[in-house]
Amino acid sequence: MSRSARPATSSDGEASSASIAVIKAELFKALAHPARIRVLEVLSDGERSVGDLQPLVGLELSHLSQQLAVLRRAGLVTYRKEGSSVIYAVKDELVAELLRVAKQLLINSLSETTGLLSSLRAPAS
User: Fold this and answer.
1) Which of 1, 3, 42, 48 could disulfide-pair with 52, CB 3.0 to 4.6 Å?
2) Inter-residue contact 7 to 17 (CB < 8 Å)
């Protein structure tokens, strides 16, 4: 790594933490598309062929292939060939857990927003 590319830190531990933060950011970039989230949600229920995924995700085949390639490069899915079919699966069950946690965060956030809206709409006493 060049000197200018190194994170500005005062110790190796901080540099390591900064590097991990970059890797985490790359992971979240790979997740930062609704189509990829949907693909991972479907694959969290079990492996699927591209042909089975396509109608469940609702993408054109070429777009689905592009999104699967991003997920493969990020190491989030695995694949194998079975005859003329390509079968995809989530690489680690923690991906499904991450999606469940994200959903719960959204539910919690929306619940708070709904409560705030109710308070604002309530007649003044």
Assistant:
1) 48
2) no
Q: At what angle do helices 61-73 and 12-31 cross, to 10 degrees?
A: 170
CATH class, 14-121 region: mainly alpha
Tell me: the pLDDT tens digits for 67-115? 999 999 999 999 999 999 999 999 999 999 999 999 999 988 888 888 7
Return the ∠ at Cα 91 (arms to 41 and 87), rounded to 5°: 75
Dist. CA 39–CA 69, nearest whole Å? 12
- This prediction has a pTM of 0.76
Amino acid residing at 84: S
Contact in structure between 48 and 67 (CB atoms under 8 Å): no
